[in-house]
Write a structure and sequence with these properties.
Elements (H helix, E strand, L loop, with lengths): L1 E3 L3 E4 L13 E4 L13 E3 L10 H19 L6 E6 L4 H6 L4 H7 L2 E3 L7 H8 L14 H11 L7 E6 L1
Parallel strand pairs: 4-5
Antiparallel strand pairs: 1-2, 2-3, 5-7, 6-7
Length: 165
């Protein structure tokens, strides 16, 4: 929740890993700065299936995007990158902490998604949005790691994130 009046803003800040702090924080309006609001110009990131997520390729894309969209589409003042994806599920960084997905997530300030579920993970990793992960065939290291995660009683879910420019 976020509550604001003439004197303060109060809420539960979202940590960069996408989880809310357990305790509310109250800031005076002199301490609070709204840096991104609805309607601000942002570039929404779509990750095509099979796109390389190496640290170098991701960094290169982030560097090029604002100039590209400014030059070709007239976007003059982009404030942030935004993304919503199964790739931003902070569980994946715990499942494979040294992988490209974990590195990709570290670029973002993650935020929870109210509609989060594991449908995209099932579809993208197991090729079936209704796959039973506990019985699905596992050939890749990511599939095997997610299976172990599920067997331990934990689950995956999509999330969102942003990068302020």
């Amino acid at each position: 929740f976020l509550r604001q009046n003439d004197a303060f803003v109060e809420g539960f800040p979202i940590l960069p890993i996408g989880l809310a702090r357990p305790d509310a924080v109250r800031l005076s309006l002199t301490e609070w700065e709204l840096v991104l609001k609805p309607g601000d110009p942002v570039l929404h990131i779509h990750i095509p299936e099979g796109a390389p997520l190496s640290a170098e390729r991701v960094a290169h894309s982030f560097r090029m995007a604002p100039d590209f969209f400014r030059e070709h589409l007239g976007y003059s003042e982009v404030r942030a990158f935004t993304c919503g994806s199964w790739l931003l599920d902070n569980s994946l960084a715990q499942i494979q902490p040294q992988g490209n997905i974990a590195h990709f997530q570290q670029c973002f300030h993650l935020v929870p998604s109210k509609d989060a579920n594991d449908g995209q993970t099932r579809e993208r990793v197991f090729d079936d949005p209704k796959a039973d992960i506990l019985t699905a065939p596992c050939r890749t290291s990511l599939q095997k790691s997610i299976l172990a995660w599920y067997r331990s009683g934990r689950r995956c879910r999509g999330a969102g994130g942003f990068i302020l420019l």
